[in-house]
């Protein structure tokens, strides 16, 4: 009968890195993956291109009840370690915007293949189509893992179990609350979970205005009293998306407003004054169409006197235009939920885990890494960096 040093639940980024790093240390692991192939979320990330880290990743790019918790993992496995690891196995990175690193091949399959081939070389076993049903304490001090594969029930007893089974997004990729349910069973606290990096919805009287602008993007600064991001926003049939909106969604709570500066690096009042002196007869709508798409400029006419020419704008008009452009205020109705979210916010409370090893303090031998822990990164490769780092850290302690 096969014996393993650890059973890893989940063959995603954290679980695969953990298996490989354990293999480098001469430890044997069994990876149980619910999907029919490993790395399902890796394969769809970045539109199938896999933004596998971010050059500027620090603990400041993560949300957690304890913002210092991830420091230990990131000191043990750095961004440079990620870059070097993939370069060693034939993947060179190319930087896109804001430090995002993608494989030169633009193919997420290459990332997954690195892990699959290394696991094979190192004797690590990956069983796909294996759904773990329960993890229970065994009388002899280890853990009994029950799983289903091929319509049959299987059991294995192991001293150490790694939960790398992700969070609640995305159901069609096999997402579940298994790690959270099992953590509760072992009396571990769960920090409240919510969709993060998720589009925001608009309902009510303004819904049609947003829907008619569907497909329009505007480079903006989006902020609230917790965070601020400068990237594109995207108008959609249901409200707002795009990188800046996904980013702020992680810092947004239902019932709150967000603010958008539609022209973040210029001053609309100064631009109007300058143009007014040169061409006072120009209509405000024409002037705005030079700054935004015509469709978006026309849509702003709902809120400002865009039919007026620049010379006839009053001080009150200019003040109103300034406020609209630089402090466009939105009160989202909600978000698009876990199936449209990139990641989950919250998870197993950091207070329950050792920051150095990611082992549960109340349940020796149980480890939690990746998305099921209350460490949530920004958009742009940060969550992968946490997955690789947490997988590495756990492997050192199996």
Core attributes:
398 residues, alpha+beta, FAD/NAD(P)-binding domain, Elongation Factor Tu (Ef-tu), domain 3, 7-stranded antiparallel β-sheet, 13 helices
Structural class determined from secondary elements: alpha+beta
Largest sheet: 7 strands, antiparallel
Task: Name the overall outline.
Answer: elongated
* Overall average pLDDT: 95
Helix content: 25-40%
The residue ranges in which pLDDT falls below 50 over 5 or more consecutive positions are: none
User: How many helices does DSSP assign?
Assistant: 13
Provide the domain count.
2
Task: Give the CATH architecture of the largest domain.
Answer: 3-Layer(bba) Sandwich
CATH topology of the largest domain: FAD/NAD(P)-binding domain
Helix and strand layout, with pairings?
Layout: E1 6-9, H1 13-24, E2 29-33, H2 40-48, E3 53-54, E4 62-63, H3 71-76, H4 79-88, E5 93-95, E6 100-103, H5 108-122, E7 125-128, E8 130-137, E9 143-149, E10 152-158, E11 161-163, H6 178-185, E12 190-196, E13 200-201, H7 207-212, E14 217-223, E15 228-235, E16 239-241, H8 243-249, E17 258-261, H9 268-279, H10 284-289, H11 294-299, H12 315-326, E18 328-330, E19 334-335, E20 343-348, E21 366-368, E22 376-377, H13 382-396
Parallel strand pairs: 1-2, 1-11, 2-7, 11-21
Antiparallel strand pairs: 3-6, 4-22, 5-6, 8-9, 9-10, 12-20, 13-16, 13-19, 14-15, 14-17, 15-16, 17-18
Helix pairs in contact: 1-5, 1-13, 2-5
